[in-house]
Amino acid sequence: MNLAFIGGGNMASALIGGLVNGGVDARGVRVVEPYPAQQDKLRTRFPGIGIFAEVTAGAIDGADLVLLAVKPQQMEEAAGAVKSFVTSIPVVMSIAAGTRISDLSRWLGGYARIVRAMPNTPALIGAGVSGAFAPIEVTAASRKLASRVLEAAGTVVWVDREDMLDAVTGVSGSGPAYVFYFLEAMEQAARELGFSAADARTLAYGTFAGATKLAQASELEPGILRAQVTSKNGTTERALATLEAAHVKAHIIDAVKAAAERARELGEGK
User: Fold this and answer.
1) Cα–Cα dist 26/40, whole Å
2) Taking a C-beta distance cutoff of 8 angstroms, is the pair 204, 194 a contact?
3) In terms of domains, do 116 and 204 share one?
4) How many domains does one find in the chain?
5) Which of 49, 224, 229, 231 has its C-alpha lying 20 to 30 A from 112's C-alpha?
6) Residue 41 host element (H or E)
């Protein structure tokens, strides 16, 4: 496997790390990274990796996949630098939020074999989930390779329409922030009930992690699991009644939809 990464930041490093840990030879990976400090980090972490300060034929030629791993505001410049070298490359993948395939194709001089993916930050520890879309121009083999790269940092959900990536952004791309928001509230409540900061964090994190593992291990839907721990006239029922009275579930749904709408707006340059 020969891969070329344009950008060697956190997400690229997470993907490379997952691939190398999974048996991919670091000598088959090249990274275009302009910052010397980050170049040094990559060389130290991945001995044998190819490092380039700018896009050149040597950085791209022979790659099975070129991955654009720069910020959305840098994408047009990065794609412009790559376009002279990608004609013979089987597939290009972008992990930049909101950047449409039509724009990428234009910046790449009409190149059409493009996969768009939306990973989330837990990918940094190999526990991410990515949404991905591939148009008909992308071959089954290239799609499989794109999946392998993304699965190095977690799981992948393929969508049938590009606009569904906006929904992916609303659910999982922005989703870690919703979880952290909930954990903040759990910690604060525990502290206000008399626990130390350390114990409050242990209770909040442990409860969330344990409940998530239980849900993943069960074939039952979350609503049924919730009902199973909600005794009539008990403490959980009182808590859930408070949440329902404040329409918390409806507000969470509205928040996810608002994030998805904002992703759509950003993709349209609004």
Assistant:
1) 15
2) no
3) no
4) 2
5) 49
6) helix 36-45
